[in-house]
């Protein structure tokens, strides 16, 4: 959702469209495949990413080289919803599920604490945390905050208009 908002706001994206829309993500994935090789040292694409939004999962952030400056929009979502989404995707693909949800939730929470602690020590990385659930309920203040964080040149009204609450399918029953 955030990548669509950034695109609608006028920020160029670095994507390759190798993974298109599917039932699990009907708006598409907005990924750049080479990002997945950051941990293997593939960084030759980074000059092409200058001034563009690039989707990077939290596990790969620590592999970003320190010779660039980054602005990270860190999307937080309720773990119950993330796990429900993953279960549905695996079931649809006929793949076996992983460990139980409680164990996965604990592992993920520890991972997030580690990544956020690392990010806080990086002088070349500015971070803005966004709450996915809150953004879906009321996108306007979040879009304004993102715009300010990224320099104030985005079309906030277009960013707000692109948010589609109908795609919020794996809702948590808590809070």
Could you please describe the fold and organization of this structure?
With 175 residues, the protein is mainly α. It has a domain at 2-77 and 124-167. It is 41% helix and 8% strand. A two-stranded parallel ribbon has the order 1-2. The relative contact order is 0.19.
Describe this structure in a few short sentences.
The chain has helices spanning 2-9, 46-49, 79-93, 101-120, 132-137, 139-149, 156-162, and strands at 70-76, 125-131. The chain has 175 residues and is mainly α. α6 (139-149) packs across α7.
Low-confidence stretches: 169-175
The termini sit apart by 21 Å
Shape: globular
Helical content, roughly? 40-55%
Let me know the largest β-sheet: 2 strands, parallel
| Category by helix and strand content | mainly alpha
For this entry, what is the oligomeric state of its chains?
Answer: single chain
How are the strands of the largest sheet arranged?
A: 1-2
């Amino acid at each position: 959702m955030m990548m669509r908002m950034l695109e609608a706001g006028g920020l160029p994206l670095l994507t390759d469209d190798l993974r298109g829309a599917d039932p699990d993500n009907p708006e598409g994935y907005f990924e750049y495949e080479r990002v997945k090789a950051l941990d293997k040292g593939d960084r030759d694409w980074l000059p092409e990413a200058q001034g563009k939004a690039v989707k990077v999962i939290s596990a790969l952030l620590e592999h970003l080289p320190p010779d660039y400056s980054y602005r990270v929009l860190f999307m937080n979502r309720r773990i119950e919803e993330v796990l429900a989404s993953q279960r549905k995707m695996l079931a649809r693909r006929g793949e076996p599920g992983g460990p139980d949800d409680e164990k996965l939730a604990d592992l993920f929470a520890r991972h997030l604490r580690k990544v956020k602690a690392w990010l806080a020590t990086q002088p070349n990385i500015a971070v803005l945390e966004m709450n996915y659930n809150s953004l879906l309920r009321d996108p306007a203040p979040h879009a304004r905050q993102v715009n300010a964080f990224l320099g104030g040149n985005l079309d906030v009204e277009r960013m707000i208009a692109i948010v589609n609450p109908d795609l919020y399918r794996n809702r948590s029953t808590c809070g």
